[in-house]
Amino acid sequence: ASDVYKRQIYACMNYIRSHTNEAIRLEDVAAHIDRSTSFIAKKFKSELGFNPGAYISRCKLEEAKSLLTYSDKTLSEISNYLCFSSQAYFQTVFKKKYGLTPTQYRNQTHKIY
User: Of 80, 19, 26, which is closest to residue 53 (Cα–Cα)?
Assistant: First the structure.
């Protein structure tokens, strides 16, 4: 793949990482680099091996881990902040990804002094 494509995908990844607290849609990511959604989806898959939706979800879950560890926000607050459709859905995807509920994770890692 050309360096241009790599730079565009990198720009998309940065955009996603810095907007985890918004309801990011593929259209937003595509607009950020002035490309089509199908272009973004295809390039993500070919360059990175996963689709943009999976990356958005992963970034939101990584941010959730950080909030669970370093903040006193409730699960509801974290779920709302990261724009999950519901707290139940947040808890389900978190457990599916990490094998622990958000509460179990917090109990193991919490670092508020």
Answer: 26
